[in-house]
Amino acid sequence: MELTLVQAVNDALREEMKRDQRVVVLGEDVGKYGGVFKATDGLQAVFGNERVIDTPLNEQAIVGASIGMSLKGLVPVAEIQFIDFIHPAFDQIVSELSKMRYRSGGQYAPHVVIRAPFGAGTKGGPYHSQSSESYFVHTAGLKVVIPSSPAECKGLLTSSIRDTDPVIFMESKRLYRSVREEVPEGEYLVPLGKARNARPGKDVTILTYGSMVQVSMKAAEVMCEEDVDVEVIDIRTLMPLDIETVVASAKKTGRIVIVHEAPKTMGFGAEISALLSEKAFDYLKAPIIRVTGYDTPVPFSLEDQYSPSPERVIAAIRNTMAY
Amino acid sequence: MNAGSLSLTPSKPRPAVSSPLTGKQLLRLYYLMIVSRIADERALIAHKQGRIGFYVPAVGEEAAEVGSVFALSPEDWIFPDYRGSGIALAREMPLKIFFDQVLGNIEDVLKGHSMPSHWGDSSLNIVAPSSPICTHLSHAVGVAWAAMMKREKMVTISYFGDGGTSSGEFHGAVNLAGVFKIPTIFFCRNNQYAISVPVDRQTAVTNLAEKASAYGITGVRVDGNDVLAVYLATKEARQRALRGDGPTFIEAVTYRLGPHTTIDDPMKYRGKTEEESAWKRDPILRFSEYLTTLGLWDMEKDQVLRNKIKEDVNLAITNAKEVPKPEIDSLFEDVYSTSPWHLDEQRMEARRFVASKRQIQ
Amino acid sequence: MEIKFSDIGEGVAEGEIVRWLVREGELVKEDQPLVEIMTDKVNVEIPSPTSGHIVKIIAQENTRVFVGETLVEIAELSTRQDSVSPKPVLPNSEIEPSQILASPSARRLARDLRVDLAKVHGTGPGGRVRDDDVSSMHRLLAIPDKMEERIPLKGIRREIAERMTNSTMKTASVTIVEEVEMGQVLKQRETLKESFDQRGRKLTPLTFIIGAVVKALKLFPYLNAELDETSGDILLKRYYNIGMATATEKGLLVPIIKGAENMGPEELSQKIEEQATKAREGTLQLDDVSDGTFSVTNIGAIGGLISTPIINHPQVAILAVNKIESRPISRHDTISIAKMSYLSLTFDHRVLDGDMAARFLQEIKRTLEQPSLIFA
Fold this sequence. Notes:
The complex is a heterotrimer.
Chain A: E1 2-4, H1 5-19, E2 23-27, H2 43-47, E3 52-54, H3 59-71, E4 75-79, H4 90-97, H5 100-103, E5 113-118, H6 133-137, E6 143-145, H7 150-162, E7 167-172, H8 173-176, E8 180-182, E9 196-199, E10 204-208, H9 212-224, E11 230-234, E12 237-239, H10 243-253, E13 256-263, H11 268-279, E14 289-293, H12 303-306, H13 310-322
Parallel strand pairs in A: 2-3, 2-4, 4-5, 5-7, 6-7, 10-11, 10-13, 13-14
Antiparallel strand pairs in A: 1-8, 6-12, 9-11
Helix pairs in contact in A: 1-7, 3-4, 9-13
Chain B: H1 23-48, H2 62-70, E1 77-79, H3 85-90, H4 95-103, H5 137-149, E2 156-161, H6 168-180, E3 184-190, E4 193-194, E5 197-198, H7 211-214, E6 218-223, H8 227-243, E7 248-253, H9 272-279, H10 283-293, H11 299-322, H12 341-355
Helix pairs in contact in B: 1-2, 1-10, 1-11, 2-8, 4-11, 5-6
Chain C: E1 2-4, E2 14-20, E3 27-28, E4 33-39, E5 43-47, E6 52-57, E7 64-66, E8 70-76, H1 104-113, H2 131-142, H3 155-170, E9 173-181, H4 183-198, H5 205-219, E10 225-228, E11 233-236, E12 242-248, E13 251-253, E14 256-257, H6 265-281, H7 286-289, E15 294-297, E16 317-321, E17 325-331, E18 334-348, H8 354-369
Parallel strand pairs in C: 12-15, 15-16
Antiparallel strand pairs in C: 1-8, 2-4, 2-7, 3-6, 4-5, 6-8, 9-18, 10-11, 12-13, 12-14, 16-18, 17-18
Helix pairs in contact in C: 1-2, 5-6, 5-8
């Protein structure tokens, strides 16, 4: 069936709640209202208000209670309404969720998924459009997953729910309703830790994830006219990174463009760039180029200028080809 | 609001007839308090001798810790904070496990991953604590919530100090527990200080227990130096939770007789006179007088018991000190359920440096 | 000060200069690697015994040096504060490679194709050398030799050539072949495989073969021996260091599994994997390739029905395991299909005779067909 990304989220949750009694959904407005983006629409009607829980407006309690529930055998999928509002729960995520397995010598291991919409493209300004993945990738003990399409989203969310490590699952708001694609019905899994070659090519590699996969694909199509064969790698799981696929592509093309919406400095692109300099230096034909959001808060009026566009990606490809 | 209703008179114990426990149980309580006290005292001395790197004593808070744990069942889950020697020992944690944790040696059940005095052991249902303030309260709520959904008869209890009631985490967790009538106990040891800051700088209310009413839950203020009062208040809170009447906030009024940790000097922020007067309300002294009144205890027995425990504790510290540090690989264990490539890579790197004997002096 | 190629032990007598890691005129520090030398056993980097300026490189790249010969001259830095430090000698090359504008990828290509970057005309912006420039230079250089190509015999290749000739000339080698049913070994491997997989370990038939060889060698000590040609004695060895011929990019290497008699299947398979990896990655140390007492070559993984391996002199025998494949066999007068392989044993007839060799081979066959005996 053809679904949007937000419907794919709903579908994955529904399937997993049906399959596994341990799965519960909690967060602000997720129950009766079905979530502000309707990601949990209709779930409470099916699974009851004990498994689809409207919580008080307090992110730290949502994450903390999820941790507790998981210690007692439930598998909570918490929704944080916007990634911009995850910061009150930072202590819970950075000090508790990520470190509990470690500090207890493996005795207490929280099995929790935190879903949150992120990214620009819906005119959200400084507090509804951020891309905060780097904080979480930087925190040992968390997995970070970002899908790029509805089918990918269903498969990755299902795998995230089944993964016994804590997962921060970030959903690009820009993709929630803009894309519709065929999504497999019933059980559907996409493994974590594996990148996807979204478009094989031989001249330049674009490394990207989330909604920037689409932007990069557009740029790649345009570059065909200039006889440049672009490979687009959809990273999918930022932590743990599929280093094999990334390095293999880098060795093949020797020219790298990294695209993400998050700010440039200390962004995920910086890490990939460092890794490639360690693992594929001798294969590089040109410096690695990053196309990213700017090192500013996300502006309201000029949000479209803030996010990488196909034009900016094309310019980067031309630069690396000319080097 | 039950604030104060369970408080015993501060100086004199109740008459024997009203004791809620048998003579054997009373002596067990006393034993546990003494073990906690001596473990703390010896650990502080061992720290000064350079045998222990860091420690958080709970001297003065034995009645609050031991009395509350004594009121629980083994299936109840305990979420201590980092001041929990009395909690761990009252749960019958063996001294070996206790001091292996403090030394972080290869036999530490937490694999040397956590700081000293952060005791936890899943076989005792003590959840290994972190250091941030009150982050564990919502975990206790979550566990009790899940148990409630599974119709399991158990409660959870979380421990924190007076300073913790100022944190956002406290508010988030207590509020949530109130809304869903979660079978949990919030146990606050009001020991008068958050490091150096006195309790009147934490809140404008006089009794912390009053905070409970803002969350629509039961609040109890109890004399935290009276082990039996603490026991009763906790027992009642447990029954309340199991009845489905929701969480209880217990404020146990006590005094931190020792330093905040081994790197604190209380003389910088409070006077000797204050401490001396607090020592007069020492919960252990008080309970031993009570047991003596009942004819259950005497000075001679006391000396024998203390000497025996002191020997056991000293031996446990010496033994723990002799157990080697964990192997290098353990540094990389338990970050994830399975080790990802980058940790494999870093483990190999670390191993190489352990293997190479050359060290820059 | 003249820096000589010193005796690095284990009987290494000569080596070949792979590449210089320093240039003339360069200031080097004590312990800084000067040159990479390939010996018949390993590649070694020779560290500088002193700090000073490189005056002259005597032994050129791709030439042979013998122990005791001078490699390089270094003008030592005086430790006295007041002395005048020697004037550095200017390097021969006008352009230093680091000053050439070239991408990392082009530099790697130039290294691999042995193209001198300084001679390449860069067509990139600012004259930057790109991959294509290196490739075209390489093609240009290669044109005169189009029909035939001369490749110098050097390094491991030359070493192999010399050793093989030496063995053929010195030994009286005979090869006998036996057929063995490998079905049980494969089955046993399947049984153990899961537990090995879980621990991330590989279990190959080679583990069983080396196990069987060691077991048989204990019964037939003349195959685990050496002929001392000066004294005329046969030296029987009571330790079992099994060489495993390993194909690598540089050529055939024979890392040794030392003390194989003391290893269970797990340790043995781990050691095999370890040594094979070291061989492939070029990190074998002298100790890894010395003191072998018997060799096994596993040519069958690639193909070949029967082979006649050459003895790894001064050892006296070598066993080759050939292709394992399903073949019809006669068993109890009926035809059945079994996993079969030919084992070729080459032995030195000077030291032992055919009957002993045949019995030795029978013993290996017997054990491989009942693999539970191997590590019993």
